[in-house]
Amino acid sequence: MHRTDLAAALLILAGCGAVYYATTTFDEVSPLFADNIGPAWFPRLMLWSIAVLALALPFEHRFVAGGRRRLDEERSDRVKRITFLTAVLLFIVVAAIGLLGMALAMVLVSALLPLLWGERRYRVLVPFALLFPAAVALLFSQVLRIYFEPGRFGFAFG
Amino acid sequence: MELLAYGFGQVLDPFNLTVILVGVLVGVTVGALPGLSSPMAVALLIPFTLTLDAVPAIAMLAALYCAGTFGGSITAILINAPGAPPAVATAFDGYPMAKRGEAGRALGMATVASVIGGVFSLVVFLVATPLLADLALQFRPQEYFALTLFALSMLASISGRSAIRNLIAGALGILLGTVGVHLTSGVERFTFGLHELTDGIHFVPVLIGLFAVSELLSQSRTANVAYERITSVVIRLPSRADFLKVRWTLLRSSCIGTFIGILPAEGATVAAIVGYNEAKRFSRHKEEFGKGAIEGIAGPEAANNAATGGAMVPTLALGIPGSATAAVILAALVAHGVRPGPRLLSQTPEFVYVIFAAMLIANLMFFALGLGGAKVFSRVTLIPRTFLWPAVFVFAIVGAYSAAASLADVWVMLIAGCIGFVMQRHGFGAAPLVMGLILGPLVEESLSQSMILFDNNWLRFFESPICLAFFALTLFGLFWSPLVAALQRTAARA
Fold first, then answer.
1. Buried-state track A15-43, b at ≥16 Cβ within 10 A, e below 16
2. I want to staple B87 with a disulfide (CB 3.0 to 4.6 A). Which of B72, B252, B255, B319 is the partner?
3. CA dihedral sign of residues A74, A75, A77, A81
4. What is the per-residue pLDDT for B232?
5. Helical spans, DSSP H, in B379-429
6. pLDDT at residue A44 in the model
7. Rounded distance, CA B404 to CA B408, Å?
8. A12-17 long-range contacts, Cβ below 8 Å, gap at least 24?
C-alpha cells in the first residue's frame, strides 16, 4: 500500500463526507418538482464516484505502468520554502486589494514577488514595478473600460 | 460556398486581421516560453476579449491556439526546452540538429510541417463539423448523456500519470459545476449563504487559477534558472530532398493528429508523441532518430498542429472539447453568449466558417512569422523569470477581477491556483478538472431530461443503439489504459 496515496485517499474521502453532509442541508424541493431528479442526487452520484475511485488510489502503483516511481515523480522532492512564501505573498496581495485598490496591489506584487525570488537589479525592478502595472491598469481601465477598485487611498492609474 | 466567403469576409476585415495577428504574436511568444501554455494564455486573454464582439474574440483565441502549438517548437529546437508540452517530441531530434549547426533547417521543417498539419486538419474541420452536427441534431437527451459520458471517460487516457487521478479530477470538476441554483428545482446548492456563488462558480477565474497561478507556484522552485543564449540562426525552407523524404510522414502525421484531435479530451501532446512514434516506426532510418532525424521533426510538428483543427470539430459540433485549450475556448464561447453544439451550426453556421477562416489565416501568419522571426521569438526566453511570472500574476488578478468586476472571483482564482498546485504535485491534472467543470452542467441536464422522459427508469438508456455504442466506447475508454499496462507487464515478465 502506498502511504502518501493512502493519506490522499483518506483526505478525499473525508472531503467527500463533508460535502455529502452539505447535500443533506439543501432546501426541500417544491412538491411540483418532486418527481424529477432531486438537487442532491447528481452531486451525490459524483461524490460516490470520487469516493470509489479514491479507494483504489493506495493500490494504484501496483497496476499503473512505471509503478510507484512514476506516481512519485513530481512529489518526490519536498515543497520548497520559497513556494510557501510565494503563496503567502499572493494571499497578502489579494487581501490588500480592498485596502490599497487594484492598481497599488499590482505595484505591490510587481515589486515584492521579484524581490522574494531573489531579483536585486533595482534599475530594472523599480521601473518594472511602476510602469508595468500602470500600463496594465491603463489598458484595462481606459481602453477596455473596466472599473477597478480604488481602495481606501482612492488611487488608480486610470 | 457563400458561408465560406462570409467567413473570409469577416476575418479579412482590418480590425479582425489585427486581432488575429495579436493572437498569433501572443501565441508564438507564449508557446516559445517554457512554463507558459496555450490554455493559460487563452484563459488570461478571455477577460480581455469580453469587450470585443464574439467574432474577433474567438478569432483571436483560435489564432492563439494554432500559433501557441507551433511556438513551442522554436525553443524545443534551439535550447532543448520545449516551450509547450506538444513540442516535447520535437526536441528529441530538433535539438541534436541544432547542436550540429542545422537549427535553421530544423526550424524550417518545423514551420512547414506545422502549417501543413494545421491546414490539413482545417479542411477536415470544415467538412466534418457540419456532418457531425447534422448527426448530433438527431440526438435526444439520452444520447447526449451517453456521448458526454463517453467524453468524460476519455479523461482516463489523456496525458497524465494516472487514469484514476484524471477521473477523480474530472468528477471534481463536474461537482464544482453543480455549485449554484439547481435549474430544475431552483434549490441553491453549495452556496453556503454566499450570494456570489448563486450563479455558480465562474469559469474564467477557475481557469486562470488552475493554469496560471498553480504554474506560478511550481515555477517558484526554479525562479533563477536561465536559459542559454541563442546563437545566430538563418531559417531555411526544407530542400526538395528533405521534403521528399518526409512527405509520407507529413501526410500520416496530419491524419493521426486530426483523428486524435477529434477524440474528446485528447490533445496536441498525445498527437505529437504518436506522430513521432509512427514517424520512427515507418522510417527506413530508425537509427537516426534521437540523433537529429528530419522526420523526427516533421512527424510530431505536423501531428500536434493537426490536432488543433481536429479538436475544434467536437468542440463546435457537439459542445464537447477536444483538448484542454479547446475547453478554455469553449468557456470563452459560453462567456460570449455562444453555446457550441449542433444548434450552433443550424442557427449560426457562419460562426464556424469564421473560425475556420481565422485559423487558416493564423496558420499563414505563423508560417511567415516562423520563417522570418523565429530568432526574435526565441529571445523571449531571455526574459528573467523573476519578472515574467509577477507579470503573469498581474494579468491573472486583473483577468479574474474584470470578468465580473468582483473581488470574490480573485479569491476563487487564488484558491483554485493553490488547489491546482497541490493536485498537480499528486498527479491530478488541471485539464480533466476543467473538462469536468465545462461538461458537468451538460451531463446533469441531459441526465435529468432523460430520466424525466424515461419516467425514472434508467434501464431505458439501453433501448437506444446509439447509447449502447457510446456506453461500450465508455467502457473501452475506461479500461483501455489499465488493460494495455497489464498486457505490457505480462509481456515484460515473459
1. ebeebeebbeebeebeeeeeebbbbbebb
2. B72
3. positive
4. 59
5. 385-402, 407-425
6. 95
7. 9
8. A12/A50, A12/A51, A12/A54, A12/A57, A12/B168, A13/A51, A13/A54, A13/A55, A16/A47, A16/A50, A16/A51, A16/A54
For A107-118, what is each residue's pLDDT tens digit?
Answer: 999 999 999 999
Tell me whether residues A90 and B384 touch, CB distance under 8 A: no
Euclidean distance between CA atoms B220 and B56, whole angstroms: 35
- Report pLDDT for B136: 79
Q: How many residues does chain A have?
A: 158
CB contact under 8 A, A36 and B451: yes
Strand partners of residue B181: B188
For chain A, the average pLDDT equals: 86
Instruction: Decide: helix, strand or coil at residue B180.
Output: strand
Residue of B47, B172, B410 lying closest to A97 (CB–CB): B410
The pLDDT value given to residue B288: 86
- Asked if pLDDT for residue A48 goes beyond 80, the answer is yes
3-state secondary structure (DSSP) of residue B189: strand
Q: Is A84 on the interface with B (CB under 8 A)?
A: no
Nearest-by-CA chain B residue for A34: B185
Q: How far apart are CA B453 and CA B448, in angstroms?
A: 9
Quote the pTM value: 0.84
Mean pLDDT by 10 residues, chain B (494 residues): 82 90 89 80 85 86 88 82 81 87 88 93 88 81 86 70 85 92 86 85 88 90 66 75 91 93 79 89 86 92 92 85 84 83 77 87 88 75 85 90 85 94 88 85 87 85 89 82 67 67
Q: For residue B226, what pLDDT is reported?
A: 63
Q: For cell 479507494, what's the residue? A: A55
Q: Which contiguous run of DSSP H or E holds residue B188?
A: strand B188-189
What totals of helices (H) and strands (E) does chain A contain, helices first?
Answer: 6, 0
- pLDDT, residue B159, reads 55
Phi, psi of B147 (to 5 degrees): -65, -45
- Give the DSSP H or E segment for A15: helix A3-23
Torsion of CA B306, B307, B310, B315, to 10 degrees: -150
Angle at B268 between CA B440 and CA B52, to 5 degrees: 65
Of A97, A118, A136, the CB nearest to B386: A118
Interface membership of A71 toward B (CB under 8 Å): yes
CA distance A57 to A10: 10
Backbone angles phi, psi at B348, to 5 degrees: -130, 65
Whether the per-residue pLDDT at A157 is higher than 70: the answer is no
What totals of helices (H) and strands (E) does chain B contain, helices first? Answer: 20, 2
Residue B401 contacts A where some CB pair is shorter than 8 Å: yes
